[in-house]
Write a structure and sequence with these properties.
The protein has one domain (2-265). It is 78% helix and 0% strand. The radius of gyration is 25 Å and the shape is globular. The chain has helices spanning 2-23, 27-39, 43-67, 73-95, 101-122, 132-140, 143-160, 165-175, 180-202, 213-230, 236-274, 286-293. It is mostly helical. The N and C termini lie far apart (80 Å).
């Protein structure tokens, strides 16, 4: 059992490292299903461990892109600063149990599905360079849509434990008009910052799960090396299609987990309620009642 878990973590870490290198995203969006469904961790420790792993892998994968000068500073600042604020708010909400596990997972699945649809719409044969709304935003080059997207990404990072790359990359491509490879490197740096802030706001260090960190990082390093070699040979269309397929698969997995969590929580609540004995059902013994009405005569 231990060997199979280690192999699963190594393979999962390798896939995550590969996707971060190729797409600039996809780390925590696969890591959450791996930890909650594959390993069986509860949502809170899975979120903390996911944020820690993705931070390390994102920094490692960003270095080659930075060396090649594939970094967009202005969009990174416009999107990144609101994202940090959102990460702190989202992590604080998750820490205070304001949002249940089922809601966290459901939000994650819904956003992943919507972003996948946007990316597929973006690359349909014969379609324009961008969505109608996006074309207007790009023409005006207003920073507010990108900043608002950053705030939403940050909230999602804190609430659902994802680095936010699956939302950052589309925002940089669709709203800022960046090429996929520049968006990927920029995304990796923002992912690392978002994850660190969310982990701090969450206030939870995955001490009991640190033994799982080694196979994830070893696999992630091997996957990153492979991804860096493959990435230059992939075109824009292949990258976007692969990213959309990743999002759809993750959305389906997490939606199933959210439904299972909701059903389990509901079942426990009903079971606890059924075992409670109402006070008005307490029966007074008949002998006591007779004693009250038939007092001995003096």
């Amino acid at each position: 059992m231990l060997t199979s878990t280690l192999l699963l973590l190594c393979f999962g870490g390798g896939l995550i490292g590969f996707l971060l290198a190729v797409l600039g995203a996809g780390g925590s969006i696969l890591l959450m299903p791996l930890l909650t469904i594959g390993v069986g961790l509860k949502t809170d420790p899975a979120i903390a461990l996911s944020l820690l792993v993705v931070t390390v892998l994102a920094i490692g994968n960003a270095i080659p892109g930075l060396r090649r000068g594939q970094m967009a500073t202005k969009p990174a600042v416009v999107l990144g600063l609101p994202a940090l604020v959102g990460s702190w708010i989202g992590g604080t909400l998750a820490k205070g149990d304001v949002i249940t596990d089922a809601i966290q997972l459901a939000v994650f699945a819904a956003v992943a599905a919507v972003v996948a649809w946007l990316m597929l719409r973006r690359i349909e044969p014969g379609s324009a360079a961008a969505l109608p709304l996006t074309r207007e935003l790009m023409r005006s080059r207003s920073p507010w849509p990108l900043a608002f997207q950053g705030l939403l990404v940050g909230l999602l990072t804190g609430i659902a434990g994802v680095g936010g790359g699956f939302a950052i990359v589309p925002a940089l491509v669709l709203l800022a008009g960046l090429p996929m490879r520049i968006a990927s490197t920029t995304s990796l740096l923002l992912i690392a910052l978002n994850s660190l802030v969310a982990l701090k706001a969450l206030g939870s260090w995955p001490e009991a799960q640190l033994s799982l960190l080694v196979p994830l990082l070893v696999g992630g390093a091997l996957g990153a090396v492979a991804g860096q070699r493959v990435a230059p040979h992939l075109n824009e269309l292949q990258l976007r299609r692969g990213f959309a397929a990743l999002l759809i698969g993750s959305a389906l997995l997490i939606a199933g987990k959210a439904l299972e969590t909701h059903q389990t929580t509901t079942g426990k609540t009903r079971s606890e309620q059924s075992h409670r004995l109402p006070h008005h059902d307490t029966i007074t013994p008949a002998s006591t009642l007779r004693g009250r009405h038939h007092q001995p005569e003096l």
